[in-house]
Amino acid sequence: MTSRLFNVGIIGYGMSAKVFHLPLISGIPELKLYAIVQRTPKPNDDAEKDHPEAKIFRSGEEMIRDKAVDVVLVLTTPTTHFDLTKFALESGKHVVVEKPFTPTSKEAYELIAIAEKNQRLLTVYQNRRWDADFLTLSEMIKNGTLGRIVEFETHFDRYRPEIGSGWKMKPAPGNGAAYDLGTHLIDQVVFTFGMPKKITGFVGSQREHNPDGLEDSCTVLLHYDGMMATVKAGVVSLESAQLRYWVRGQKGSYKKFYMDGQEDELKAGRKPGDAGFGVEPREKYGTLTTMENGIPTTMTYPTVEPVTYGVFYSKFTNALLGNSEVPVKPQVPADVIRLVELARQSSNEGRTLDV
User: Fold this and answer.
1) 311 and 320 Cβ atoms separated by less than 8 Å
2) Residues with Cβ < 8 Å from 40, sequence gap 6 or more?
3) What is the DSSP string of 95-126?
4) Which position among 19, 22, 62, 242 has the lowest Cβ density within 10 Å, counted as fewest Cβ atoms?
5) Across the beta sheet with 31-37, what order do the strands follow?
6) Alpha carbons 162 and 231: distance in angstroms, whole number
7) Rounded distance between C-alpha atoms, residue 213 and residue 205, angstroms
8) In 10 A of CB 268, how many CB atoms?
9) Which pLDDT score, from 0 to 100, does residue 172 have?
10) Exposed, middle or buried, 300 (CB in 10 Å: 0-12/13-18/19+)?
11) Amino acid 306: pLDDT
């Protein structure tokens, strides 16, 4: 028996809702899918048919006004995040916002203040903190396996030389590589090491044909005392196995290829709790190189078994019950947006900036 049910209202019925949120919510007894906002249903894409148990709305504002809604998930395009989140918080709702938090850091910091003023929970869905390879790397850093870190490279590269369709492929506030994939990577760095001292950004396009000028790729250097973190997201990277991490420390070096598999499993209909969910196969493990008897020696380093993305909503539910903090405090995602702004400014001006 659950202690309390919280009615969840979802704004947006795209891939984010279907792949990353609805499957995770369904595994939490305290969270009840109460409502979905879908503005333009189609015969093969209809929230009402997929979820007959939920109330269907055509506007986010209308759903937020429903007094039965306890929690609002803002899973819409970035340009709408600020207004919808602000209205939800001021209407007494707790809010989960999809990343990127907001197009500007000013908006992000304002939402944090509004949440505090209204004593509502606010969190951002930075699910890559629960990637199995990131948890593995975090464990290595924490236990000193690598020693003092001097270089931290994190990549999200793909081979997509032709521009695709959809709203992400159009220049707009909050769109582009630095906001889309860059926020995942920068969040992992800031979550691990805190804010850098300086930043150098290279933001632009790798595609030969890019008529709208979408910023499809980025390289961001985050300068720390004694360490450099490199964030890279590109679309013209033709590799049989894409580099994910290359982290070098005084005692060891960790190199990892391949992306975490949880997204693909969720797309295939599997969920956290299914046997083997999120467990990485041995052939995708990373390698650790250390000095053994004066000789650099490389060994396979097993990826940890992940707690999975499902922990986000487990932690969020505990926060709703007053037992813990939210899974992702909004301050770091807000700081990440500030770093994205500085990276774009650095790129435009061709210089390194103080943070």
Assistant:
1) no
2) none
3) EEEESS--SSHHHHHHHHHHHHHHT--EEEE-
4) 62
5) 55-57, 31-37, 6-11, 71-74, 94-98, 122-125
6) 22
7) 7
8) 9
9) 87
10) exposed
11) 80
Q: How far is CA 290 from CA 148, 207, 230, 331, in A?
A: 13, 38, 22, 36
Helix (H) or strand (E) holding 199: strand 198-204
Amino acid at 68: A
Overall average pLDDT of the 131-140 stretch: 97
The pLDDT of residue 1: 46
Specify the pLDDT at position 164: 82
Give the span between the Cα atoms of 136 and 307, in whole angstroms.
11
Task: For residue 130, give the nearest of 339, 327, 333 by alpha carbon.
Answer: 327
Structure tokens, 81 = 């995040």
Q: What are phi and psi of 325, to 5 degrees?
A: -85, 170
What pLDDT shows up at residue 165? 81
Residue 312, H or E segment: helix 310-320
**Is the pLDDT assigned to residue 2 strictly greater than 70?**
no
Helix (H) or strand (E) holding 339: helix 331-349
Tokens in use for 60? 């986010």
Average pLDDT score over the chain: 96
pTM of the model: 0.95
Q: Are 148 and 249 spatial neighbours (Cβ–Cβ below 8 Å)?
A: yes
Burial class (CB in 10 A: 0-12, 13-18, 19+), 96: buried
Between CA 146 and CA 137 the distance in angstroms is 9
Contacts of 159 (CB under 8 A, 6+ apart): 235, 236, 237, 238, 239
Tell how strand 286-292 and strand 252-257 pair up. antiparallel
Segment 151-165, tens digit of pLDDT: 999 999 999 999 888
